[in-house]
């Protein structure tokens, strides 16, 4: 099979576009200092973040309840 100059050019351009896209993604992670910037970045990670946020909210409520109970006992 003959590989034409046009095929080599198209392959090189496609590889450059992929590299530029990947570099843009990496720069976004570096500048935002966050691994997940969009839901599509890491769907499993997003579900974990939502889970952790829920747990943090529950802990905050427990803390408020304890403080209120201590105030009521005092």
Commentary on this structure:
With 74 residues, the protein is mainly α. It folds into two domains: 1-33; 40-74. It has two helices and no strands. The longest helix is centred in the last third of the chain and has 31 residues, at 43-73.
Please name the defining characteristics of this protein.
2 helices; 74 residues; 2 domains; mainly alpha; 80% helix
Look at the helices and sheets and give the structural class: mainly alpha
Which sheet architecture does the biggest sheet show?
none
Write the element-wise H/E pattern from the N-terminal end onward. Answer: HH
Mean pLDDT rating: 93
Helix proportion range = over 70%
Number of helices: 2
**What is the CA-CA span between the terminal residues?**
88 Å
Short characterization:
This protein has 74 residues and is mainly alpha-helical.
Helix-strand layout with pairing:
Elements: H1 5-32, H2 43-73
